[in-house]
């Protein structure tokens, strides 16, 4: 586990070669997080999405990465892409409170208030 920037990253490795990639990925993410105060926040989300895409190329069923990419899409106002990632994450981990909350927020932005309320209540 890695804790930083208000997030906890939990990694699992399927091959030794993945360890090196994940180590490099973590260092790059920490660089992006460190650069955030001086850069446009929207640009940081775009940078973060690139790293999440790379991570998902290695581990396509990583619910954590799918959840975070879904949240990144939401922050970039790409709500349908957000729902796609959040729905996939919930197929893998159906009771994840953070993912339910993020999907509830995405539904709210789409004016789907019943779905939003349902997910937000389930997340409690």
Automatic annotation (TrEMBL):
UniProt xrefs under InterPro entries: TPR-like_helical_dom_sf, TPR_rpt, Ycf3
UniProt TPR repeat ranges: 63-96
Gene3D superfamilies to which the protein is assigned, alphabetical: Tetratricopeptide repeat domain
Keywords: Repeat, TPR repeat
GO terms for biological process, alphabetical: receptor-mediated virion attachment to host cell
Matching Pfam families: TPR_12
Domain of life of the native organism: Eukaryota
Name of the featured protein: 9018_t:CDS:1
Organism of this sequence: Acaulospora morrowiae
């Amino acid at each position: 586990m890695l804790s930083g920037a208000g997030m906890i990253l939990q990694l699992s490795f399927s091959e030794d070669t993945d360890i090196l990639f994940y180590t490099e990925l973590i260092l790059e993410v920490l660089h992006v997080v460190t650069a955030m105060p001086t850069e446009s926040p929207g640009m940081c989300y775009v940078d973060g999405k690139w790293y999440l895409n790379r991570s998902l190329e290695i581990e396509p069923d990583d619910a954590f990465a799918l959840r975070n990419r879904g949240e990144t899409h939401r922050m970039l106002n790409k709500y349908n892409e957000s729902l796609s990632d959040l729905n996939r994450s919930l197929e893998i981990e159906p009771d994840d409170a953070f993912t339910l909350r993020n999907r509830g927020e995405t539904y709210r932005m789409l004016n789907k208030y019943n779905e939003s309320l349902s997910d937000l209540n389930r997340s409690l």
